[in-house]
């Protein structure tokens, strides 16, 4: 029997300065940790193998965004989760698909609220944010800058 389990298949491609990676995650078990690990590995590969500039801050923020989006998909949608990472220019786009068509809504800031701050966190660190319905389910896409803003440090060598 050849090939990985269908929920573990991935695709990686590089075209000029655009790289992408897609993985399907089971909605149970350690999928959040797996998604974070795959995001860090993808960005490390983009930096080491393809000479794309990626700061440590970008890797950390990408893992944070992945963690929040996959956690929400796991919590609110039945079935598998599809995560795509795409580097285009100076941004990594994290895109997470799940089967629930209900679009997320950021709640008003409330320092006394315990939990449910994930979307607020994601929007605070994002260069871009989009939530859209798909023919089945929805897709949340978040852009994270690969390089630090001036004064925040430089890209890792």
UniProtKB/TrEMBL annotation:
The keyword Hydrolase does not apply. It holds the Pfam family HATPase_c_2. It comes from the Bacteria. This is Histidine kinase/HSP90-like ATPase domain-containing protein. Gene3D superfamilies: Histidine kinase-like ATPase, C-terminal domain. Residues 49-141 form the Histidine kinase/HSP90-like ATPase domain. Keywords: Kinase, Serine/threonine-protein kinase, Transferase. It comes from Streptomyces marokkonensis. InterPro entries: Anti-sigma-factor_SerPK, HATPase_C_sf, HATPase_dom. The keyword Transferase applies. Transmembrane segments: none annotated.
């Amino acid at each position: 029997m050849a090939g990985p389990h269908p929920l573990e298949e991935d695709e990686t491609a590089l075209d000029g300065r655009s790289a992408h990676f897609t993985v399907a995650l089971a909605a149970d078990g350690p999928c959040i940790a797996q998604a974070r690990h795959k995001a860090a590995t993808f960005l490390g590969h983009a930096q080491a193998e393809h000479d794309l500039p990626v700061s440590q801050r970008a890797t950390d923020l990408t893992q944070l965004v992945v963690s929040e989006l996959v956690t929400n998909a796991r919590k609110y949608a039945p079935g598998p989760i599809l995560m795509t990472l795409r580097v285009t220019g100076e941004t990594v786009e994290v895109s997470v698909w799940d089967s629930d068509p209900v679009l997320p809504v950021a709640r008003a800031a409330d320092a006394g609220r315990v939990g449910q701050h994930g979307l607020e966190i994601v929007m605070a660190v994002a260069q871009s944010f989009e939530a859209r319905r798909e023919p089945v389910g929805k897709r949340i896409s978040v852009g994270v800058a690969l390089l630090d803003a001036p004064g925040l440090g430089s890209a890792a060598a």
